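Final report, closing paragraph on structural work. Over the funding period we assembled a curated collection of sequence-structure pairs, and we close with a single example.
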Amino acid sequence: QVQLTESGGGLVQAGDSLRLSCSASGFALDSYAKGWFRQAPGKKREGVSCIRSLNNNTYYLESVKGRFTISRDKAKNSAYLQMNNLKPEDTAVYYCATDKWTECHAFRTSSDLSGSDYWGQGTQVTVSS
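Its predicted structure, as stored:
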């Protein structure tokens, strides 16, 4: 069964850290670029970070630069988003997803992925002040 499974969200205080994991089954996650979107209540979905497997190039949303780090582990068929110094404005549901066709452009522009891309179920991150 092809799926992405996320874990690692939770309720933390401002300044704390969380590490999101995105594990793939049924396909090789490293075959594609992949990353995280997030969506807060009443707000549009935005691309947070993305990593390309071909050259390890990364993208970060301006507001998370210097605080978030994306990584991948081919052997574990997984990707990770280390989130440090979390702020209340980081509160959202975070979704990992593959990016089969745009090499992270969809994350940079917060636009739609293709219908053949895979999505995780989402994990809630709540940061209290």
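The first strand starts at residue 3 and ends at 7. The chain has a mean pLDDT of 96. We thank the funder for supporting this effort.
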